[in-house]
Model the fold of this input.
Amino acid sequence: MKRLFRKTREAMGGLAVWTILLSILATGTAAQKADKKEKPAAPQTVDSGSFGVFIKGQRVATETFAIQHENGISIIKSQLKEASGADPVSQKSDLEITASGDLIRYDWSQSSGGSLTVLPNNDFLIEKVTASTSAKPAEKPFLLPSSSSILDNNFFVHREILIWRYLASACKSESGNLKCPKEATPFGVLVPQDQASLPIKLQVVGEEKVTVRGAEHALLRLNLTGENFDWALWVDDHDQFKLIRVAISSDNTEVLRD
Done:
């Protein structure tokens, strides 16, 4: 399965954060109480746009994504296209999670062939990998709960979802401000393209002045770390904690929201 760059094994504002977090990770209470005869609510787009992927300053790929919330389920769709080549390779991913963040289903495919699906099964996540359209899927179980996050290669919107989950689970609202722990918070994640489960950590660093496309912005920095990687991520805590920039210094890679 092709990767665009070397694979990785791999505050806060006031009440605005809770608006976005409740949109993504709200409880299903309202839906459970709703009259079954009521017309289902239209999908709510929580975030959409694209990320440019740059290596040594040159754009190599574009990820286009949309995050929607519908009937207690969050649906995260993403497509990645290489910037060069007569027939650039395209990858697609579809992630569905419950109101509490548990995995419902994850699908990945690429235009050059190959696909995979991840489904929860009791205390396991089962990954089914298909090398071609005619091949029989090979299954691999992971002893991981359905609450584990999907953090697949090259899909940076997955990092945004992880950050929102961190803010909702590890941070608390005090006097209208969000307070996060000083120490890094561990998460268990599955990287389906690598067929690997990993322990990772997220930690808030603080507000920094960051230049994005020639303009200076005050953004909130978080560090995403694992055994063999160290990423810096910046989100806009004045705009629903949307992911704006990612820096992967070991790969000379930068990701910017378009």
The radius of gyration is 18 Å. Residues 157-170 form the longest helix (14 residues). The longest strand covers residues 196-212. Confidence is low (pLDDT under 50) at residues 4-20, 25-34.
